[in-house]
Structure formats: C-alpha cells, structure tokens
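DATA CLASS: polypeptide
GOAL: derive structure tokens

***
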Amino acid sequence: MNARNTALLLIDLQKEGGTSDVVGMDEIIEKTATLIKECREKGIPIIYTRHLNRGDAVGLANREPLNEKGEPAYYHTETEAIDVIEEIKPEPGDIIIDKYRYSGFHESSLELMLKSLNVKHLIIGGVLTDVCVISTAMDAYYRDYQINLIKDICGTTTEGAHMAAILMMGNWIYDIEIYDTKQLINKLSGEEYKVWKSEGPDELQFTPENLRSVFEKLTFD
C-alpha cells in the first residue's frame, strides 16, 4: 500500500448518522479527522459516500421508513441530514459519491473514480458497520480491491452488531488488514505498527457467548 494507489473511503459520515444512536460517534469523528489530515499530507485521495433518499420517495428501497407525509424518514435529500458532518466535511478536490442503496458501488460512480485514480488499496471506515460499511467492503473485495479496515472509525447502533460485522469481514475478506487509526497512521508514516491479517477463512469464529473475547484478538493497545 502506498499513496500512489491508495484511497481513503469514508462511508456515510453524514449529519443523519452523526445525530443517530451510533455508539461512540464523537470518538469516531475525532479519529476520522485525524486520519483525514494524515492522508491529505501523504497525498492520498479522500472519497466520501453519501446515502440519499429522494424527498419525493421515488426510487426508495423496499419498505424504506416514511414519515407522516409519505416522505423518507432518513437521509431525506431536501434536508441537511445528507450533508457530511461539519468537522470532517470535504475540501476542494475531494470526491463525493452519492448512492441510493447500502453499498457504495451499487449503481454509483465509485468504481469509475477508483479506476481513474488507479486505486488498488482502500482504507475504509464509516457508518453503519453492519450495513453500509460491510456492504461496501464486500463489494470492493468482489472487485479485487485490497481492504484496509479501520475499526475504530466504524460504528453502528449496538456494540455487539459492530463487533460481529468486523469479525465477519475479517472472516470472509481474505486479504483484509484490520487497523486502529493510530496503527494505520504509524504505517503511513513509516513507523512501527500493529495490524491483524487473515490467515485463512472463518478464522474468527464466534458465538454469542465468546463474541467479546474473539473481538479482543483485533485489539492492539
């Protein structure tokens, strides 16, 4: 992984997600801002996805929640909910990919942008871990991008769902590398770092009873 063929892909870090019940959202935003700064300094492109639902409800996914007006309850295109969170908002030259389904690749321009940038490696984080992050990471793997998942800038509505989604990605994305923000920054800076890499399929088998202890295998501090 080097700056010439790597991109930072941030999934749905929008005001809608920032005001929801994502566990640890303040820390996610803080660490994301730190990683963005490091990537800018290294010349790594920054790509944001934004999840959208048309205000007139055209093209919504099956059974997408609606409000009393029959409009989408979440990610409504006629509200500020779709904007990227202010603390980590895009700068000129950054790329914004709008999407209407969970995966950032589904009928979007994401792959076109990645190919134009000659990207081979993706640094991925965002929300929700068990929905749009896992969907996008799996779709990226299907397209032969190497995935570097930053687990402490991912989050969802429960700690258990977050951990389970991280472990599922670790089990089935065979060339995945899983970092915390600090460790990835160390790698980008040429310093000593720690990383978890898969040694084989279904390595991180877990049950409801041992989920936390298996997840601890991915802890680097």
Q: What stands out?
A: Residues 3-51+84-218 form a domain with the Rossmann fold fold (CATH 3.40.50.850). The two ends are 23 Å apart (CA to CA). The mean pLDDT is 95. The CA atoms of residues 15 and 219 lie 29 Å apart.
